[in-house]
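To make the argument concrete, we let one protein speak, a sequence paired with a row of structure tokens, as a model reads it:
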Amino acid sequence: SWSIFEDRVLYQLLVFLQPPPRHSFRLELYGETYLPERCSNIRVVLECTCSRKMENSPCFAHPSKTNESQHSPLLQNLCTGSYLDVEEIACWVQNLVQTAWEHLPQWQDWQLTVLPSSHSCRLLLSGPSDMQLCAVLVFAVEQGSP
């Protein structure tokens, strides 16, 4: 969505996060209710890919002595334990956007400022003629999404 707020154009973008291969997201209940505004109850689950009947088939959820469980480095950076950490995700995306911005020469007339936020990625773009655009990236997941 977008709107005009004071002297700025504000864009709000919903960004769906996808789990790494062989993983899914599970929203856990607290007291029989979902708490969608909190990311601390989104568990990252390693899915079984074997039938367990075939002893020679590799499985990441059931590692053998020769096949240790493989964990995504991205998960190690974006999770606390087995749960998504929204503050880590926001920080990672903010750093990613800042690094990518430095490689966009066509935007040299615009200045990017990453605004402080622990639960989203807030960006302020200042351009010619004192024009300002503010983009808010809000993170979301689909339960059980492969």
User: Anything to note?
Assistant: The radius of gyration is 20 Å. Residues 124 and 134 are 4 Å apart (CA to CA).
